């Protein structure tokens, strides 16, 4: 779109035109600022509302799972692990314990059988011997992730966002992978609904970047609804 | 075999920055999506380096703050302030250009510095356009881009940007985070820094828009004043005055005699950055009672450097002007605690530069100690 300079200057010469244009500019700036604030408030509101609803709704499952874990090996019910959050800040992520109490010590031994390859950034394997009998089922149904609703309430995490990596995994990142840490991590994201552990690390990063690029409250709702069948049918979970 | 340690020395070109007069040293200027130092940290990660030691002589407090906040990179970061870059270790890499390509000759004046940053940005955009995920990386999150806007690669659009209808962005355009392009804008070979506003039917070609100031690289001109409907900055201009400082100012004002004490300050003066303050610019402590009401109104910080008129500011050399220009002014300064109560005192500028080169609140306790002695002295 072009404007003839003569037309522009003749318009500015009219009384009050520049003031009207300046008022419109200020209005536009205010409107965009409000839009950004509303987007932030909507995202946080969805997180708080969704996490509270989930904690109330799944309370019986929480109690039952806690009992089963306690009965199986008398170990602790919950497991807190350091994860890397938005901007590289560390936070403690809560989970139901699905592995043996000494699982961390066994990890190094098992790194050779990594499903994502020995040089892989993330560590996944089928028939992991560290997983308990109860653990196998709660992982299959993703119940082990439910305590993360508490992290969402605290503000360390969001309902939807890239999965928070372990510090060990981030140490193996390339610079381009770090871009997925620019936003708050979440419980579910695009790669959880698209095949979960079956997708390789580069594919996960690409899906995370795709989410970051097009994130909005509505898109979050769509992902949340699509997560339900993925969880129920245990797609890609082991 | 990658080295465990990368030693980086940031260029000391503060004295050359006579055109842009940036509050940040060259190493912290934004090139594309992040500052130059962060591009080097990306490079360190890709090289498998685990420790980075940063050396800087130009505005080290700002570099130290950025280094401390750089948690995203899985690196151990260390920082050392230097008197001059010559004091850096012999093997240190000079971070004066993007990593991975050879740097052109060092700049010699202020426009050279701006053109160097623009050339680096072009190189970065070209490099990014070759990445397989360019489509995902070129636009930030929470952006609204009108379907009738045209994007011509290579370009980069930051987070929270609004692009109106009929805009043409690129090639070689960088739109900083939080910017608003009202509509029918054309931006090519140009950079808009964070929170810029570009009014409707405005075109930028080979330009830098930084904090509402336009730099035309083709004609080498700097334009400071614009009608707000054409170009503006969306940065908040009012200083942040903590509630504790406001209450302290109120108490001091009452203690020093309240409105009775400031009744005689009918004169006012203008500071070099266009702020109007009551009192006489040559007077010492007698002005301060008249400035205290501005603190609880949130218009002036309680602690900062002493305000200067344009004449007092221009007496300083270029390096010192660059340091003092961006430091917040306040009712009480570190110079006060050292017995210098007016910018005309021969040692005041030295204390002001010292205060301006440190992180903002570093000397506040010394200044607060001085302000507590005022009532007893008066």
The value of Rg of chain B in angstroms is: 23 Å
Query: Biggest sheet of chain A, in brief?
Result: 2 strands, antiparallel
**Number of alpha- plus pi-helical segments of chain A:** 10
Q: Which oligomeric form is depicted?
A: heterodimer
Q: What count of helical segments of chain B does DSSP give?
A: 12
User: How much is the average pLDDT of chain B?
Assistant: 90
User: pLDDT below 50 for ≥5 consecutive residues: which ranges of chain A?
Assistant: none
N→C terminal distance of chain B: 69 Å
Helix content of chain B: 25-40%
Structural class of chain B: alpha/beta
**Major sheet strand order of chain A:** 1-2
Instruction: Count all strands of chain B and give the number.
Output: 23
Helicity level of chain A: 40-55%
Q: What's the β-strand tally of chain A?
A: 4
Task: For this entry, give a set of tags.
heterodimer, A: 238 residues, two-stranded parallel ribbon, 10 helices, B: 378 residues, alpha/beta, 6-stranded mixed beta sheet, 5-stranded mixed beta sheet
Would you spell out the secondary-structure blueprint of this structure?
The complex is a heterodimer of chains A (238) and B (378).
Chain A: H1 5-13, H2 17-57, H3 59-73, E1 78-84, E2 90-96, H4 103-110, H5 133-140, H6 148-154, E3 158-160, H7 167-170, E4 186-188, H8 190-193, H9 201-213, H10 217-232
Parallel strand pairs in A: 3-4
Antiparallel strand pairs in A: 1-2
Helix pairs in contact in A: 2-6, 3-5
Chain B: E1 5-9, E2 30-31, E3 34-35, H1 36-46, E4 51-56, H2 60-69, E5 76-81, E6 93-94, H3 110-129, H4 134-137, E7 144-145, E8 150-151, E9 155-157, E10 162-163, E11 168-169, E12 173-175, E13 180-181, E14 186-188, E15 190-192, E16 196-198, E17 203-205, E18 207-210, E19 213-216, E20 221-223, E21 231-233, H5 243-255, H6 258-261, E22 268-270, E23 276-278, H7 288-296, H8 310-314, H9 318-325, H10 334-337, H11 348-356, H12 364-377
């Amino acid at each position: 779109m072009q404007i003839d300079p003569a037309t522009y200057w003749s318009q500015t010469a009219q009384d009050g035109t520049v003031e009207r244009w300046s008022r419109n500019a200020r209005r536009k700036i205010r409107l965009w600022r409000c839009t950004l604030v509303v987007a932030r408030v909507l995202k946080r509101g969805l997180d708080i509302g969704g996490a509270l609803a989930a904690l109330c709704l799944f309370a019986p499952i929480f109690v039952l799972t806690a009992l089963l874990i306690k009965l199986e090996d008398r170990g602790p019910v919950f497991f807190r692990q350091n994860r890397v959050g938005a901007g590289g800040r560390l936070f403690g992520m809560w989970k139901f314990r699905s592995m043996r109490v000494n699982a961390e010590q066994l990890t190094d031994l098992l790194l050779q059988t990594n499903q994502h390859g020995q040089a892989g950034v993330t560590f996944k394997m089928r028939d992991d011997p560290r997983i308990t009998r109860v653990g196998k089922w709660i992982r299959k149904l993703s119940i082990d992730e439910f305590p993360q609703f508490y992290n969402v309430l605290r503000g360390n995490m969001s309902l939807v966002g890239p999965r928070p990596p372990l510090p060990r995994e981030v140490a193996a990142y390339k610079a381009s992978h770090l871009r997925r840490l620019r936003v708050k991590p979440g419980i579910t994201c695009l790669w959880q609904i698209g095949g979960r552990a079956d997708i390789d690390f580069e594919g996960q990063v690409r899906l995370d970047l795709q989410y970051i690029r097009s994130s909005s409250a509505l898109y979050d709702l769509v992902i949340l609804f699509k997560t339900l069948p993925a969880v129920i049918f245990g797609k890609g979970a082991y | 075999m990658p080295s465990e340690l990368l030693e980086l020395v940031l260029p000391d070109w503060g004295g050359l920055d006579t055109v842009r007069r940036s509050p940040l040293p060259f190493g912290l200027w934004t090139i594309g999506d992040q500052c130059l130092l962060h591009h080097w940290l990306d490079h360190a990660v890709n090289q498998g380096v685990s420790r980075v030691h940063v050396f800087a002589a130009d505005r080290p407090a700002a570099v130290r703050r950025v280094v401390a906040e750089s948690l995203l990179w899985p690196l151990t970061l260390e920082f050392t302030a230097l008197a001059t870059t010559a004091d850096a270790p012999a093997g240190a890499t000079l971070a004066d250009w993007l990593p991975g390509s050879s740097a052109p000759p060092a700049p010699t004046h202020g426009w050279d510095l701006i053109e160097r940053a623009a050339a680096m940005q072009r190189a970065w955009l070209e490099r990014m356009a070759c990445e397989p995920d360019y489509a995902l990386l070129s636009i930030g999150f929470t952006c609204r881009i009108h379907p009738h806007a045209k994007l011509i690669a290579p370009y980069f659009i930051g987070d929270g940007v609004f692009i109106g209808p009929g805009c043409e962005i690129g090639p070689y355009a960088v739109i900083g985070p939080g910017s608003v392009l009202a509509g029918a804008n054309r931006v090519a070979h140009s950079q808009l820094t964070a929170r810029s506003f570009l009014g409707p039917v405005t075109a930028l070609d080979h330009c830098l828009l930084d904090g509402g100031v336009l730099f035309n690289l083709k004609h080498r001109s700097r334009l400071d004043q614009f009608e707000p409907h054409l170009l503006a900055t969306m940065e908040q201009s009012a200083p942040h005055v903590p509630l504790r400082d406001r209450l302290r100012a109120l108490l001091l004002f009452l203690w020093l005699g309240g409105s009775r004490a400031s009744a005689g300050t009918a004169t006012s003066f203008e500071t070099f950055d266009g702020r109007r303050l009551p009192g006489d610019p040559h007077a010492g402590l007698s002005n301060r009672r008249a400035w205290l009401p501005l603190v609880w109104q949130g218009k002036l910080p309680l602690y900062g450097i002493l305000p200067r008129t344009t004449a007092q500011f221009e007496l300083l050399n270029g390096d010192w002007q660059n340091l003092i220009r961006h430091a917040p002014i306040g009712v009480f300064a570190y110079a006060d605690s050292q017995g210098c109560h007016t910018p005309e005192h021969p040692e005041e500028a030295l204390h002001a530069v010292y205060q301006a080169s440190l992180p903002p609140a570093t000397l506040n306790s010394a200044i607060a100690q001085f302000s507590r002695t005022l009532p007893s002295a008066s």
